[in-house]
Design goal:
About 40% of the residues lie in helices and about 20% in strands. The chain is an alpha/beta fold. It folds into two domains: about 130 residues, Rossmann fold, CATH 3.40.50; about 130 residues, 3-Layer(aba) Sandwich (Rossmann fold). The protein has a six-stranded parallel beta sheet with strand order 2-1-3-4-5-11, with helices on both faces. A six-stranded mixed beta sheet has the order 7-6-8-9-10-12, sandwiched between helices.
């Protein structure tokens, strides 16, 4: 895939390094390395670095909730003078000072997946992500179709306040409230821990025997949710939609535990993020915002080319 180079950036000053600038390290720092989603980002980044003359490092905290650890990883990258950075901020505000330091050091930064806080505007050059609000609305529309728009609906979320969560879950809830008569239970926050999501979902199912629908808003949360549905004997009885597309979630869709799952272009985030940084290092400009897309995967299209392009 190729980034279309268009107008000057809408955010941040372009870092006008000369074409053919000295090759160096491009640091890819994500929310956690303990997730297939982020490992798929790594695969995309590794594919993009080939033939560029640059080297690639990939790192992240042990858990998405370890925000201070991610801040330290960014600071360390700045201190060792990386040529560029691709960053998925686990907290929109906490990462702002670190990204500002990168900008002051002349390091081009591509933000992926979750937006940086408003105070960070102008300190990075491009933002690559799923349109999380549109994805949340799509999930809500599919849930309304499955349930008829009535009954209790549980929302199983991940980390409160993260940029992707605000858009994805916030717009899901808004769309449900605006277009259905469903009663929302939650949201519950798993801190992106599968075991926590499993326990939370088990409790929700026990406390709400009349539950009509349930939404798991990211990979570990949706996996925990699916396992809870299986263990409780509620699989297939409650309309269930997940988010992301690892092997567990694909199996849940194939087996009818989930009616569907929305899958982001995680490979594309890594691939296009690195390509953007390489272009910036060469003194080129890239689009201020790049949509990496989402696909609603069901049993019917699970084996299609469109689905296989995003599943991992």
């Amino acid at each position: 895939m190729k980034i279309t180079l268009k107008a000057a950036l809408a955010i941040g000053a372009v870092l006008a390094l000369p074409a053919g600038a000295m090759a160096g390290e491009i640091a890819v720092i994500v929310k956690t390395t303990n997730s297939n989603f982020w490992q798929n980002v790594n695969k995309g980044a590794s594919a993009a670095i080939e033939g560029t003359g640059h080297t690639l490092t990939f790192d992240g905290p042990a858990a998405e909730s370890a925000v201070a650890d991610e801040v330290n990883l960014v600071d360390n990258a700045v201190n060792r003078g990386v040529a560029g950075m691709v960053l998925a901020p686990s907290d929109p505000e906490a990462l702002v000072p670190a990204v500002k330091r990168a900008n002051e050091a002349g390091i081009p930064v591509a933000i992926i997946d979750s937006a940086l806080g408003k105070d960070g505007e102008g300190t990075y050059q491009t933002f690559l992500s799923t349109d999380n609000c549109a994805a949340g609305k799509l999930a809500a529309d599919k849930m309304i179709e499955l349930t008829g728009g009535e009954g209790k609906l549980a929302v199983m979320s991940y980390v409160a306040g993260v940029g992707s969560e605000i858009g994805r879950v916030g717009c899901f809830v808004e769309q449900i409230k605006a277009n259905s008569k469903m009663e929302i239970v939650g949201p519950y926050y798993s801190q992106s821990q599968m075991a926590t999501a499993l326990n939370q979902t088990t409790d929700v199912l026990a406390a709400n025997p009349d539950l009509k629908g349930i939404f798991g808003a990211n990979e570990p949360t949706a996996v925990g949710m699916g396992r809870a549905l299986q263990q409780s004997g509620k699989a297939g009885q409650v309309a269930a939609i997940g988010f992301d597309g690892n092997e567990d979630l694909q199996a849940f869709v194939r087996d009818g535990v989930l009616n569907g799952t929305l899958v982001q272009g995680s490979f594309q985030m890594g691939e296009l993020g690195v390509k953007a940084v390489v272009d910036l290092i060469a003194g080129k400009t890239v689009e201020a915002q790049i949509d990496t897309g989402v696909v609603y995967v069901t049993k019917e299209n699970l084996d299609s080319a469109e689905a296989k392009n995003v599943l991992y």
